[in-house]
Amino acid sequence: MLRKEVNELLTQTGPETAMGDLFRNYWIPALLASELSEDDCPPVRVKLLGERLIAFRDSKGRYGLIDEFCAHRGVSLWFGRNEEEGLRCPYHGWKYDYTGQCIDVPSEAEESGFCTKIKLKGYPLIKIGDVLWTHMGDKENRPPEPAWEFATVPAEQTYTSKRWQESNWLQALEGGIDSSHVSWLHSGSLGTDPLFKGAKGNQYNQNDKKPVFEVVESDGGLMIGARRMAENDQYYWRVTPWVMPSFSMVPPRGDHPVHGHFWVPIDDENCWAWSFDYHPTRALTTTERQAMIDGYGVHNQYVPGSFRPLQNKDNDYQMDREAQKRGETFSGVWGIAMQDASLQESMGPIVDRTRENLVSTDNGIIMARHRLRKAVTALRDKGTLPPGRDTAHQMVRSAARVLPADQPFKDAMMEDLTVRPGVKQTSV
Ligand code: FES
Ligand SMILES: [Fe+2]
Predict the structure, then answer these.
(1) Residue 105 CA: which ligand 1 atom is closest?
(2) Which pLDDT does position 72 carry in this prediction?
(3) Which ligand 1 atom is at minimum distance from the Cα of 94?
(4) 194 vs 99, 183, 336, CA distance in Å?
(5) pLDDT value for 340
(6) Most buried among 87, 117, 302, 316, using CB within 10 Å?
(7) Is the Cβ atom of 81 under 6 angstroms away from ligand 1?
(8) Could you give the C-alpha distances from 180 to 11, 152, 245, 298, 322, in angstroms and in order?
(9) How confident is the model at residue 143 (pLDDT cuts 50, 70, 90)?
(10) How much is the pTM?
(11) d(CA 115, CA 90)
């Protein structure tokens, strides 16, 4: 349970909010690189942390993320003409470069220097992997560029998608680090989803529905361990790393690619669920990549031409009561990603955490909230930069392993939970 003020503190991310300031201390995913696929392509509307922005790629391939609205009389630059190294407002022709600097006001004499005094807000936009990343905070405190393994392995080893989720970012994150729901909500899909099925770990997941949680702090966030019974009194451990503020990875299964998420606030009632899949040591197979495109695993199908899931609240997520009854899906909703999203959205845009009743399997969530709160108040009150910005904090992996009962995961699995180039994931 959280007090109302704390729930607000952790869920509000607009400009001038404490959590908004925290998010502005990181590089966050802003667009798929494929959304700006060539020089001078159409600009794209982007809303992040409550700010309405426009992304574009200029004639020289430079990426810009600037205020959506023209400084003259507020027209949306989504209507802009992307031409000759800048975005030109179609109303009266004012033109901006990729930093937001105004470079032409046709009605004014050039000698007046008028346009040099006009600058729109502008954020950097850099391409690493399949993602364009932005940092929306002070330039002086800009962290090192993102170094996540999914974004830095060769292109043939990785796949990233994003979907619009109609809920606050925190309830999406809390779903991602809650390993206990897997044995329930996803039980039907473990044996059928092509990106999950066939792993020995699935049996442990299905046989023991009472996982015991052990959570340890890491430099950048948490390592959330969930243990279930295996044979010969051993434990099957699934360990989920969370790096502040909103990166997490799902423990792997067999030799399937490893997956994970970023949850990025659009505004307080919507977020982007970024989902990635990669294999540390081999290319994704054509079948795997096609399954991701088709919406299996952590990915989803779309309303054509949008990032809105095809199954959404307007069609009750295409819930199938018969499939639910037969046990093909536990909740009646198809697909692992939408099983999660449907339930998280069902809580309402911002769940009322004053009314919940947490239990021991919620320990990861409790500790993540605690760390977030500590970091938010330290930044707000003392200017302390938060964890998760350092490259070293990003060198994490999820892992799954069977261990003797007397071996704590935090001793036995530390190497498994670290990025080791050229070494495959530890998985069961
Ligand atoms: S409103 Fe953009 S140029 Fe006038
Ligand atoms: Fe889930």
Answers:
(1) 3
(2) 98
(3) 3
(4) 44, 17, 11
(5) 97
(6) 87
(7) no
(8) 23, 30, 21, 17, 25
(9) very high
(10) 0.97
(11) 16
First to last CA, the chain: 34
**91 CB under 6 A from ligand 1?**
yes
Nearest CA to ligand 1 atom 4: 92
Q: How confident is the model at residue 30 (pLDDT cuts 50, 70, 90)?
A: very high
Average pLDDT, integer, range 262-277: 98
Does the CB atom of residue 89 touch ligand 1 within 6 A?
yes
Assigned token pair, 67: 């205020």
Give the per-residue pLDDT at 415. 97
Look-up of token digits 């330039």: 139
- The whole-angstrom separation of Cα 29 and Cα 126 is 10
CB 88 within 8 A of CB 28: no
User: What percentage of the chain reaches a pLDDT higher than 90?
Assistant: 96
Diameter over CA atoms, the chain = 84
CA distance 165 to 157: 26
Nearest to 119 by CA among 137, 102, 107: 102
In this prediction, residue 179 has a pLDDT band, given cuts at 50, 70 and 90, of confident
User: Can you read off the two tokens belonging to residue 423?
Assistant: 């070494």
- pLDDT, average across residues 92-99: 98
Residue 180: which pLDDT band, with cuts at 50, 70 and 90?
confident
Q: Cβ(70) to ligand 1 under 6 A?
A: yes
> What is the per-residue pLDDT across 387-426, written as a single tens digit (0 to 9) for each?
999 999 999 999 999 999 999 999 999 999 999 999 999 9
Which residue type sits at 420?
A: R
